[in-house]
Amino acid sequence: MISDSPVVMGGAVRRPSANVKTQNSKVDTKAKANGNVNDNVNGKESTYKGKEHNWALQASSRINQDGVWQHVLTIGIIYLTYWINQQPATGRFYDALTAKYGAFNINMWGTWIVSSAVYWTLGLIFMAFDMNDTLHSYVKRFKIQPDRRVTWAEYRQVLVCVVKNQIFVNLPLIYGVSRWAILDTSSNLPGWWKTFGVYFGCMFCEEAGFYFVHRLVHHPKLYAKIHKMHHQFTAPVAFASTYCTLAEQVFSNIGPILIGIVIMRPHWSLMILFFCSLEIGTLCTHSDYNIPGLYDALIHDWHHYAFTENFGPTGLLDDILGTNKQYKVWLAELRRRDGEGWKHAARTALADATQ
Ligand SMILES: [Zn+2]
Ligand SMILES: [Zn+2]
Predict the structure, then answer these.
(1) Which terminus of the chain is more exposed, N or C, with fewer CB under 10 A?
(2) Which residues cross the membrane (predicted)?
């Protein structure tokens, strides 16, 4: 049991208290599924619609809410890919690479190595900010649930699972696509509209596929076997984006991405663009930091916290299908409190508990 592990807060090792929790704190799944989440703040009965959320209370963690910067980031990544592809040297590079290794090896090993390298590089940066107190002090004002930090034991558990999923799910699925839907690796590189269109076509498949598979695995008959593991972290860390069962990794995380790729069969460079962009997105949205300039982490963080809302990656289908009502109500309430300079009781309690 890791739930007894000490939690590092502000340089001191503390035992978990009512307000400082490890990530393995057991959650009453049935109560959550029924919407009866009881966040007992400092032992007091809640005062807001039967419950007092201890989530995104720092106004600084909401600066990035619905920001345009994440769209700038997305367009920037797409444009960078387009720009690189337009350089004459890039065409020569692809021809030389294909001549040397062959299209299959680039599709298979190139995809796996590049996507894994991007995932680990950014994930380790987030991990450093989680585990090093000096680095953490620079970003803690953007932390959505600042009273929750993971332990080394929990991180080890997550990293083992990440490696397992990358080897036993990602690799075979990439092999399948490389074998039966091999992508072009020649110097016949796509222009702007194709790059843009493929990205948003893939994004549409991802939004729809992830949303509906995710709702399905929240069904009581599937939840315990497939998805419960991913919800072990109510305040996740970046690497926890791949902390899930093999089945979830196949059907929820990788399946929808590959469907878009197989339907459109773009140039290999566009598959790498989409993979890396989604990886950056999922690492940011699981990081529990809502840092301006990066992807808005509030949407998915709320899903881990509140469990019954925000099933999609972008929030679009949640808006359309109304699966984010409490989320919107709580954000509106926080904005109202910001406007009034309202001091949250849980913040005061937290400050007391961590002094
Ligand atoms: Zn879920
Ligand atoms: Zn998640």
Answers:
(1) C
(2) 68-85, 106-129
